[in-house]
Amino acid sequence: MDESCLDPVLTWFEKQGWRPLPFQLKTWRAYLAGKSGLIQAPTGSGKTYTAVMGPIADMLQTRTKGLQLLYITPLRALSRDIEQSILKPIQDMGWDIRVESRTGDTSSSKKTRQLKNMPDILITTPESLSVMLSYKDAQKRFGSLRVVILDEWHELMSSKRGTQTEVCLSHLRGLRPSLRTWAVSATLGNLEEAAQSAVGLGSQPLIVQSSLQRKTVIKSILPRSVDSFPWGGHLGLRMFETLVAALDIETSTLIFTNTRSQSERWYQALQFAMPEACDRIALHHGSIDVKEREAIEAGVKTGEIKWVVCTSSLDLGVDFQPVERVVQIGSAKKLARLLQRAGRSAHIPEGTSEILFLPTNALELLEISAFRNGLQMGDVETRHPLRKPYDVLIQHLVTLACGDGFEPEDTLQRLRKTVAYTELTDEEFGWILNFIEKGGKCLHAYPRYKKVASDQGVYKVSDSQIAKMHRMGIGTITSNQAVYIQYMNRKKIGAVEENFVSRLKQGDVFFFAGRQLEFFMMKDMVAYVKGTNKKSTVTPSWGGGQLAISDSLSTHLRNQIDDLRHASDLNQELTCILPIVSTQAQLSHIPTAEEFLIETCKTREGEHLYVFPFEGRFVHEGLGFLWGYRFAHQQKATFTISVNDYGFEILAPKGYPFKELFSENFFDLDALYGDIKASINISELTQRKFRGISQVSGLVFKGYPSARKTSSQLQISSSLIYEVFSKYEPDNLLLKQAENEVLQDQLEIHRLSKTLQRLSRLKITWKETKRPSPFAFPLLVERLNSRMSNESLLVRIERMKKQWSKK
């Protein structure tokens, strides 16, 4: 196509006082040449306009009716900013292009209108796209579609939502063979694989990378004395006064925490420390009502709100140009996450991001140093598409059957052009067809599981009730059932997980969304509350709070530990931690890069084995159970296992001969799968995973909007089905998927295997200590934390530290 069609776009850029960057021009020309690909550029470098301006120029040159551009974003919150960004040049230039959003927050009337009259550009989520495909006339609705843009592809591609996007795109390409796809990402290590999963197999993606250099400056808030600083924990509240002193209320700042409960506590602390600025400090996380989050985001953009305590809800591309500084409380655990958060500040091309690190415990100083080293080397984690999640495929096929239906052979060929299902066999596809048509081997007696029927070779859903129930269950996010929190006047505040609310009784007071609330009652999955001034220390807790360091960061962490052996030329974090390092060297040992440290210690509790691979919490969990099983296989005993990001502890009865029983067999890979399954309650873990799989695949109905099922009801339903499958169809594909998810996702068995190989090549250094070393102490705290209340835990830790200091 003639590049003169870019003239309207270039004219608008000129009116803004901008010049298109080279990578933007390259992307627009590639699009006009009919190519698909991936755009990688730093945060704040204009990726949205890079992705959309080529298609808009094309739309202005050759006008057609109907949906032209589909923009898929992972978060509903992003759709508002994206819509405003796209609308600006359209409104400025008076272009005849209609832009709309369609997410879970869109009204039902607007959704119905959109199905009949699609806009030129639609911004939506993977779930909303699936719902649109579940209605008839998809060919008419998507027949004019020119391009699909996948925003923040690195966030989607390695999850079931990414797989859901892949299969939806495969169907759209069947409807529209000339369809182009462009993925957008800021932080990704494996570009080729990411690009291929976005455009599908059989198409050669073009990777466009920006040459812009965005500098990230890491500064630390260091404790005055590391001796009195916590050796374990994740809140960091001990240093809240130090943080307040380091910040300026006139400087727009995002204060990131890793969990929602942590953000609530930090918000309370900052409100206490800055009572005169309460109206300029806000709290933002995914459980707060969407309207309140929108008001906070608007306040940041106008400058009315200066400090926002937030979680990953503000990680992604919400454009906050006024933000000047980012604070990270505790380790971000991943290089990509740190880059993403740092990029929220100086949100302009080639801006310098400044991130202020506040460690929550002494050993996190090592992680801060490791982050700086990793960023200097340009490392970013890789993310990989999922392989054959059967539950997503089952949901997708029923979705298509609710709409225009699907022909098995054509659909299978399209699916095999996705990275997720390229290895899907005829037998597996046949099993899935039988499962959704007849209920499979076990559920054929129940009509509700016979969801589709063949009509002249086309599979369709003929029962309107089944179609209605299926549409309400579309999606792959299966966290704990949410309970909405409302005032007695029905004003919404947000939502928390059911297991927290179930522990409350009338009159209990808790903090949520920065408010002090008194619980009144729960009815129909809604918790009714009222504001109160009564005192409380209760903060809602949510699942998913424990993050683990990534593979890339663990490599740099081990390098930092090796550097500790050389006292000269250390950075400020390593210098600060030297007193603890000195104590570690006196009590035990500082391992080199070629050493593997194992400590043993005798206490009144028994024999302690402390192992330090420095590979991350999830790998250590699998390794701890594996070694516990291999020890018990030689001499039976009851073990207690605790893990953190640096290592794991096995606590055995007094006199247990760890060192005598240890051998090279502990690194054996031949029996890895069998020993892992034997070392943990694999059936219990598999059953837990199956709960989510049963919801995604439609085996369990979550309930109607006005009568949602509780977590207990869903658990009972999925458990019954799990038991039936286990007894009568042990080779059920969904059971196999559940077991695979436990091994691959929860225990990271591939990474565990690599860790065993690495450790087997190292020199093992055994050290017997008289008391837990500084490396071991956090593991001891981790174990105590699982057994004791917070109050009694703190008392015991302080007593132990005083005893340790005296010795």
How would you characterize this protein structure?
This protein is of the alpha/beta class and 807 residues long. The chain has 32 helices and 27 strands. The strands form six sheets. Strands 3-4-2-5-6-1-7 form a seven-stranded parallel β-sheet, sandwiched between helices. The chain starts with 6 loop residues before the first helix and ends with a helix. Residues 788-797 have low confidence and may be disordered.
Quick gist of this model?
Helix content is 43%, strand content 16%. With 807 residues, it is an alpha/beta fold. Strand 14 (453-455) and strand 15 form a beta hairpin.
* Rounded mean pLDDT score: 88
Helix percentage range: 40-55%
Distance between the termini: 79 Å
Percent of residues in beta strands? 15-25%
Order of strands side by side in the largest beta sheet? 3-4-2-5-6-1-7
Rg over alpha carbons: 28 Å
- Shape annotation: globular
Number of β-strand runs: 27
Number of helices: 32
- Secondary-structure content class: alpha/beta
List the uncertain runs: 788-797
The largest sheet is: 7 strands, parallel
Main attributes?
six-stranded parallel β-sheet, seven-stranded parallel β-sheet, 27 strands, alpha/beta, single chain
Please render the helix and strand layout as text:
Blueprint: H1 7-15, H2 22-32, E1 37-40, H3 47-61, E2 69-72, H4 76-93, E3 99-102, H5 108-116, E4 121-124, H6 126-133, H7 138-142, E5 147-150, H8 153-156, H9 160-175, E6 180-185, H10 191-199, E7 206-209, E8 216-220, H11 240-246, E9 253-256, H12 260-273, E10 281-284, H13 290-302, E11 307-310, E12 325-329, H14 335-342, E13 353-358, H15 364-376, H16 390-402, H17 408-415, H18 426-438, E14 453-455, E15 458-460, H19 464-473, E16 482-487, E17 492-497, H20 498-501, E18 509-512, E19 515-523, E20 526-531, H21 551-563, H22 572-576, H23 578-587, E21 595-603, E22 606-612, H24 617-634, E23 640-643, E24 648-652, H25 658-661, H26 672-679, H27 682-696, E25 703-704, E26 707-708, H28 711-728, H29 733-746, H30 749-760, E27 763-769, H31 777-785, H32 790-806
Parallel strand pairs: 1-6, 1-7, 2-4, 2-5, 3-4, 5-6, 8-13, 9-11, 9-12, 10-11, 12-13, 16-20, 21-27
Antiparallel strand pairs: 14-15, 16-17, 18-19, 19-20, 21-22, 22-24, 23-24, 25-26
Helix pairs in contact: 2-3, 6-9, 15-21, 24-26, 24-30, 27-28, 27-29
